Task: structure prediction
Amino acid sequence: MIRQGQMQVVNQQQIATNIFELTLIGDLVLDMKQPGQFVHIRVSDQLEPLLRRPISISSIDKETQEFTMIYRADGRGTTLLSEKKQGDQVDVLGPLGNGFPVDKVEAGQKALLVGGGIGVPPLYELSKRLVERGVQPIHVLGFQSKDVVFYEKQFQELGETHIVTADGSYGTKGFVTNVLETLTDDFAVYYSCGPTPMLAALEKMYPEKEGYLSFEQRMGCGIGACFACVCDTTEKMDVDYVKVCSDGPVFPSGVVQV
Ligand SMILES: Cc1cc2nc3c(=O)[nH]c(=O)nc-3n(C[C@H](O)[C@H](O)[C@H](O)COP(=O)(O)OP(=O)(O)OC[C@H]3O[C@@H](n4cnc5c(N)ncnc54)[C@H](O)[C@@H]3O)c2cc1C
Ligand code: FES
Result:
């Protein structure tokens, strides 16, 4: 069920350059189901900025009714969000969208998880859920540079983890594909979230594999009413377009034009 409600800031901390980890508490957490779902956040009590900002759910704790997001404070909205302090209220709409299906891979099998930049956060809850099911995750995480790398240790605790930086300041130099070329493809399913060119490269690299891709399209309403997030589909779909907010943000590989 989608709900709108006030949630309280439990903790906010900077974990890398301009990257913040924000934990909120409230009973809306009880409705969060799939990894890869997102929330739509009002970053200010003022009229401006009017539009909410979509941020992925990075981890969920139903017992404490807390969830965590990781975001880059880049533009006006996310910078305002980064100024929230412990005890502040945040207006949250969610959980939104359809996330990653974890039941596509069986216990004992491997799953490949590929993230790029601010596409990495939803993969953390996904990886935790896969490990709970007895699946072996392999993480390949790409960042611009060493100063914006986050959650390396947390992912390592869950499974094999490769870090890539575009400038070579940490881990392997280049793009996630540079690491993927060196790995065997004995995984059952791949899951990915990040920039569209990265998603396109994965589809090209693994045409025969089952894959699930999460798209970070610009959004307005977040609930399927405004058409701001529409993407064209391929001939594999019997509709011409999908709305990323309500039909996605996760789609099987090959159905959205990349
Ligand atoms: C489903 C989904 C999940 C996301 N998860 C995360 C996450 O976990 N962590 C994170 O850091 N970012 C995430 N993003 C991207 C994040 O929403 C944008 O970076 C953010 O909205 C930018 O807002 P701003 O105020 O900083 O920038 P501004 O430039 O001030 O934003 C102006 C407008 O553009 C939109 N916008 C700008 N950049 C993006 C973008 N890349 N994607 C979508 N809308 C954009 C904003 O929503 C706003 O309406 C996600 C986006 C989507 C669609
Ligand atoms: S953001 Fe309004 S329809 Fe998707």
User: Anything to note?
Assistant: The first strand starts at residue 3 and ends at 16. The chain has two domains: 3-96, 102-216. The mean pLDDT is 96. The CA atoms of residues 120 and 193 lie 7 Å apart.
